[in-house]
Design brief:
The chain has a single domain, classed as 3-Layer(aba) Sandwich (Rossmann fold), CATH 3.40.50. Helix content is 42%, strand content 18%. The chain has nine helices and seven strands; from the N terminus they run αβαβαβαβαβαβαααβ. The protein has helices at residues 3-6, 22-36, 61-79, 101-112, 129-142, 157-160, 174-186, 188-191, 206-214; strands at residues 12-17, 40-47, 84-90, 117-122, 149-153, 167-170, 217-220. A five-stranded parallel beta sheet has the order 3-2-1-4-5, sandwiched between helices. Strands 6-7 form a two-stranded antiparallel sheet. Helix 2 (22-36) runs parallel beside helix 3, helix 3 runs antiparallel to helix 7 (174-186) and helix 4 crosses helix 5. It is globular and about 50 Å long.
Length: 222
């Protein structure tokens, strides 16, 4: 399937990213093709991604959160230059799950989703706590929005288990593939050895980066 078919009759596209970089890894090509097609694009980042290098003596959580905020904004500027980027600002691994905080999070998320949007959200079965918690928020946010459609995009689920059907594998345009490659390079804290003083900190393996760039994007329907 191509982007035109997937986006048919949609007025807007909204990407819900648990962390800065999920928007590029999971659906950067589709985001770019939607923008090229003139579709209104919104990216909602739920957490600040501040705990990827917890033992760095020079990168505090505040510094890392600020840097990752700038990284996602630079990446989205490449993928969809006039897209709206919204930050809910929850701490990494602290996506709310209980009232009243979760109720407030649902209301805030719902308010960011434009009418008639196709919503892309990290897969609810991805093996990461924030991905699962964000998926729960998304389900609640869409519960009373009949105008919205939902597709899940797997991140770590690509490597941990087979994705269930029905799944769509998107054939990206060459322009989208190149835009995604440039956008992913913006996420230097996660994709390169920018932070060198925390040996246990997260850096995505080169083969995983190549997988997201070279393989079709996957979208899972309900």
């Amino acid at each position: 399937m191509d982007a035109r078919t997937l986006l048919a009759d949609r007025l807007a596209l909204a990407v819900v990213a648990p962390h800065p970089d999920d928007e590029t890894l999971g659906c950067g090509s589709l985001l770019h093709d939607a923008w090229v097609a003139g579709i209104d694009c919104t990216v909602v980042c739920v957490t600040d991604g501040s705990r990827s290098h917890p033992n760095s003596p020079t990168w505090s959580q505040e510094r890392l959160a600020d840097t990752r905020r700038r990284e996602i904004e630079a990446a989205v500027e490449i993928l969809a230059p006039d897209a709206s980027v919204r930050h809910l600002g929850y701490r990494d691994c602290e996506t709310p799950t209980r009232p009243p905080e979760a109720d407030e999070a649902v209301a805030r998320l719902r308010a960011t989703l434009p009418p008639g949007a196709l919503v892309l959200a990290a897969w609810e079965r991805d093996p990461h706590v924030d991905h699962q918690r964000c998926a729960a928020l998304v389900r609640r946010a869409l519960a009373r929005r009949a105008d919205l459609a939902l597709l899940w995009y797997p991140i770590w689920g690509r490597f941990s288990e087979a994705t269930p059907g029905p799944a769509v594998r998107l054939a990206a345009s060459e322009a989208a593939r190149q835009a995604k490659r440039r956008a992913l390079a913006c996420h230097r804290t996660q994709m390169a050895d920018l932070i060198s003083d925390d040996p246990g900190g997260f850096v995505m393996q080169a083969e995983h980066q190549a997988h997201f760039l070279d393989h079709p994007e996957i979208f899972i329907a309900e």
